[in-house]
Amino acid sequence: MSTTPSETTTSVLLIDDHELIRTGLSQVFDLQDDMHIAGVAGSVVEGLSAYAALRPDVVVTDLQLQDGTGLDIVRAIRKQSDTVGLIVLTMHSGDDQIFAAMEAGASGFVGKDAPSSEVIKAARHAHVSPRSFVCAGLVGAMMRRGAAESSRLTDREHEVLLLLADGLGAAAIGDKLYLSESTAKSH
After folding, report:
1. How far apart are CA 164 and CA 187, in angstroms?
2. I need a surface site. Which of 12, 13, 26, 122 has the fewest CB within 10 A?
3. Which domains does the chain possess?
4. How many other C-beta atoms lie within 10 A of the C-beta of residue 20?
5. 45, containing H or E segment
6. pLDDT string in tens for the chain (187-residue length)
7. Residue 158 CB contacts under 8 Å (≥ 6 apart), including other chains
8. In this structure, what are the phi and psi dihedrals at residue 84, rounded to the nearest 5 degrees?
9. Nearest CA to 74 among 114, 117, 109?
10. CA triplet 24, 27, 31: central angle to 5 degrees?
11. Are 47 and 94 in contact (CB under 8 A)?
């Protein structure tokens, strides 16, 4: 059970235009000993305002909102901070959405059909490694994109891809493969 929020717990801002999703995810996060809900919002405008006021460690945002997209939120926050974790949550988890989230600067991408434990796992990852990207479908999306573009991965890129699929961030991949973090990111 969650204890009183403290400076040692990860603060989370939830942004979703469906009250049921906000309430359900709030309850899931509040069950975690190491996390607490700092605030909730239902739109891009409310979300950016809440972020400015609360400065949470992690923002979990729906992709489709009434007044814009979660990618608008990701881009705006990423311009301000490299240290906040940014998770995109969506019912529309196709390859295009995965790549758009990654390119916008998100730390992770989770489909709404995933178990709540995946959202928690992604938020924890985003908190410790906000500039890396985690997504269960990333490897498949990259392989489909590679096949569509008729390009082949180098052996090293394939190694990096497999480690990404295991949930490792760029720094951990660099350590494991004896590469700098920037080289791991470029692969």
Report:
1. 11
2. 26
3. 10-136 (3.40.50.2300), 152-186 (no CATH)
4. 8
5. helix 44-54
6. 444 555 689 999 999 999 999 999 999 999 999 999 999 999 999 999 999 999 999 999 999 999 999 999 999 999 999 999 999 998 877 778 888 898 899 999 998 989 999 999 999 999 999 988 887 766 555 665 665 544 566 778 778 878 877 777 888 888 888 888 778 777 6
7. none
8. -85, 140
9. 109
10. 145
11. no
Handedness of CA 48, 53, 55, 61 (dihedral sign): negative
**Look-up of token digits 């988890």:** 93
Whether 74 contacts 105, CB under 8 Å: yes
3-class secondary structure, 7? coil
Burial of 186 (0-12, 13-18, 19+ CB in 10 A): exposed
Q: Residue written as tokens 């309430």?
A: 23
* Residue appearing with tokens 């603060």: 11
* Residue in 128, 139, 136, 110 with CA at minimum distance from that of residue 58: 128
Pairing of strands 10-15, 64-65: unpaired
Question: Residue 1: its pLDDT value, please?
Answer: 44
CA 107, CA 55: separation in Å to the nearest integer? 16
Residue found under tokens 């945002």: 61
Maximum Cα–Cα distance across the chain: 53
